[in-house]
């Protein structure tokens, strides 16, 4: 049922380093190229570390809040379902979803902003580029090459956005930004699945943390209209069931609208190949009405959750940890493990950034304590 304009593994642009084909069973490869990509990501060190990297709340603040790992799994579930509806390649879509946050720093966006500020004079830091760097260079699992040697299609999907300056340094995966082309539909789907997942699940975590309230969310149309449906069907529903029933309907509404609108766009354009997709504007989209509702939810979360004073306090601590670790390692590279000292001989700022970006929340906190807490001297 794969559409002609989907990404087909047998038509893949390929990998940087040639590898033997997968073994055949009953005349077919035991795994296609995109399955192998997905499996390599799942087995990577960077993927395991996502368990202890924050989404909004620092990992040690509670076991019930989402981490980068649970978020990535939720994105993969949504993206794969959408891909199936649109007759796209599910394995590729899932692989992109699982890899999209591999380059995130500890402490979420606060950590990224702090590391970017530290790296401003050295090329900056951006988690999309770092995710690509992880799969291309930093994972060391194979004897014949650095990185995971993923297909072009998956590497392309990791890059959600990129400056022209950086694109010129990336070779094949940077060309579409220079040529102003679109990525595969599988990559486009993952971008939207990411947004649907973090918006709606941040509502859940925000309510659980009591930093936002249902009374506030009643002003947001997407939440209010779905909560009204739940209450009309279940007038006596308890609060702990009301919230997940509402959120799952919000997600369902967004996914259905995305699929319907995207199919309309595809039917209007009538693409025949993936190259038609690359030369077309983005086809994956919400309807205008749903896009406005989704944007209102994003703005609400930005104002009331992400900039809540308790989150700001956490972010301030995170920024201080990142900044102080960076300056300590820049002043004395011998404070880092041997492998990172070796990398620093070629490019010390980037080696320091790689080391810090690879840390989990709790490791960064412990590393900072080891370097700066007085009691650690005794």
Question: How would you describe this protein?
Answer:
The structure is a single chain. The protein is mostly helical and 378 residues long. It folds into two domains: 29-312, Orthogonal Bundle (Hypothetical protein af1432); 313-377, no CATH class. 61% of the residues lie in helices and 1% in strands. The chain has 19 helices and two strands. It has a two-stranded antiparallel sheet. A hairpin with a 2-residue loop joins strand 1 (24-25) and strand 2. Helix 3 packs across helix 10, helix 4 (90-99) packs across helix 10 and helix 5 runs parallel beside helix 16. The chain is globular, with a radius of gyration of 22 Å.
């Amino acid at each position: 049922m794969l559409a002609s304009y989907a990404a087909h593994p047998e038509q893949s642009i390929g990998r940087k380093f040639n590898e033997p084909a997968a073994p055949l069973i009953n005349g077919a490869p035991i795994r296609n190229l995109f399955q192998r990509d997905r499996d390599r990501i799942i087995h990577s060190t960077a993927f395991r570390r996502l368990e202890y990297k924050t989404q909004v709340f620092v990992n040690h603040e509670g076991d019930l809040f989402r981490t980068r790992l649970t978020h990535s799994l939720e994105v993969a579930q949504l993206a794969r379902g959408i891909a199936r509806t649109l007759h796209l390649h599910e394995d590729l879509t899932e692989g992109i979803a699982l890899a999209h946050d591999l380059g995130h720093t500890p402490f979420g966006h606060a950590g990224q902003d702090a590391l970017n500020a530290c790296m401003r004079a050295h090329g900056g830091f951006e988690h999309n580029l770092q995710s690509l760097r992880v799969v291309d260079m930093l994972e060391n699992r194979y004897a014949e090459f650095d990185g995971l040697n993923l297909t072009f299609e998956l590497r392309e999907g990791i890059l959600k956005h990129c400056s022209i300056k950086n694109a010129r340094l990336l070779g094949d995966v940077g060309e579409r930004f220079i040529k102003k082309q679109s990525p595969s539909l599988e990559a486009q789907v993952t971008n939207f699945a990411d947004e649907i997942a973090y918006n709606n699940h941040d509502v859940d975590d925000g309510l659980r943390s009591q930093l936002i309230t249902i009374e506030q969310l009643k002003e947001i149309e997407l939440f209010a209209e779905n909560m009204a449906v739940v209450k009309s069907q279940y007038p006596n529903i308890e609060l702990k069931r009301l919230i997940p029933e509402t959120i799952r309907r919000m997600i369902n509404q967004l996914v259905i609208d995305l699929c319907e609108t995207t199919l309309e766009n595809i039917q209007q354009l009538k693409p025949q190949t993936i190259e038609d997709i690359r030369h077309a504007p983005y086809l994956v989209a919400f309807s205008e009405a749903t896009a406005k509702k989704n944007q209102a939810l994003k703005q609400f979360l930005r104002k009331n959750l992400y900039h809540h004073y308790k989150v700001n306090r956490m972010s301030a601590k995170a920024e201080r940890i990142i900044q102080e670790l960076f300056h300590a390692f820049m002043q004395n590279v011998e404070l880092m493990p041997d492998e990172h000292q070796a990398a620093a001989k070629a490019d010390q700022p980037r080696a320091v950034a790689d080391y810090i970006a690879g840390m989990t929340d709790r490791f960064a906190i412990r590393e900072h304590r080891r370097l700066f807490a007085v009691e650690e001297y005794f």
